[in-house]
């Protein structure tokens, strides 16, 4: 359920502002060529993971432990596995902003963290999803997907 579906209507029966939402219903998970995800927290570092399906590489950057930064290749079997798991994240149903009012379906955290997910498609413009201290309900499945390929926990210390 979208965070905006639970948002009360402004005075005068105006509809909520949905100008920042992007229609991803026409896109499929097979059209995704790259997913970039970043977590950052004030004085708590930042992590960035990039999964490039076309180039068959995964990139990891950790601002606290630069010696853990890497670029690895992905096997064809690993790419197939990731593509099969991707629909379980419901990534294409996420709204583009997880800030402000909190939906009961979203996950909130006690330590403030900003996050961004950028999805690149073969024939369409990129989609940027951002949040602050709250995450989509499927965040754990998405995080598990990143951790399966990077073999490193995708969470701030």
Give the neighbour order of strands across the main sheet. Answer: 4-3-2-1-7-8-5
CATH class of the domain at 27-91 and 114-127 and 139-150: Alpha Beta
Poorly predicted regions are: 1-23
Alpha-carbon distance between the two ends: 30 Å
Per the CATH scheme, the topology name of the domain at 27-91 and 114-127 and 139-150 is: Mago nashi protein
Relative helix content: 10-25%
Class inferred from helices and paired strands: alpha+beta
Gross morphology: globular
DSSP strand tally: 9
CATH architecture verdict of the domain at 27-91 and 114-127 and 139-150 = 2-Layer Sandwich
Oligomer: single chain
**Main beta sheet, described?**
7 strands, mixed
Q: Strand fraction band?
A: 25-35%
Radius of gyration: 16 Å
User: How many DSSP helices?
Assistant: 2
Return the string of H and E elements: EEEEHEEEEEH
Name the features.
7-stranded mixed beta sheet, globular, two-stranded antiparallel sheet, single chain, 14% helix, alpha+beta, Mago nashi protein, disordered N terminus, 157 residues
Brief synopsis:
With 157 residues, the chain is α+β, with helices and mostly antiparallel strands. 14% of the residues lie in helices and 29% in strands. The chain has helices at residues 76-85, 139-150, and strands at 32-40, 46-52, 57-62, 70-73, 97-98, 107-108, 114-121, 127-132, 134-135.
């Amino acid at each position: 359920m979208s965070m905006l579906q639970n948002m009360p209507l402004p005075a005068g029966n105006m509809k909520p502002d949905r100008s920042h939402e992007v229609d991803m219903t026409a896109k499929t998970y097979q059209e995704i060529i790259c997913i970039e995800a970043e977590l950052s927290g004030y004085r708590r570092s930042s992590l960035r993971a990039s999964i490039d399906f076309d180039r068959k590489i995964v990139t990891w950057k950790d601002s606290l432990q630069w010696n853990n930064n890497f670029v690895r290749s992905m096997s064809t079997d690993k790419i197939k596995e990731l593509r099969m798991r991707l629909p379980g994240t419901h990534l294409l149903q996420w709204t583009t902003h997880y800030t402000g009012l909190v939906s009961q379906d979203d996950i909130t955290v006690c330590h403030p963290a900003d996050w961004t997910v950028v999805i690149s498609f073969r024939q369409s413009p990129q989609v940027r999803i951002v949040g602050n201290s709250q995450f989509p309900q499927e965040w754990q499945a998405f995080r598990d997907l990143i951790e399966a390929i990077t073999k490193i926990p995708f969470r701030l210390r």
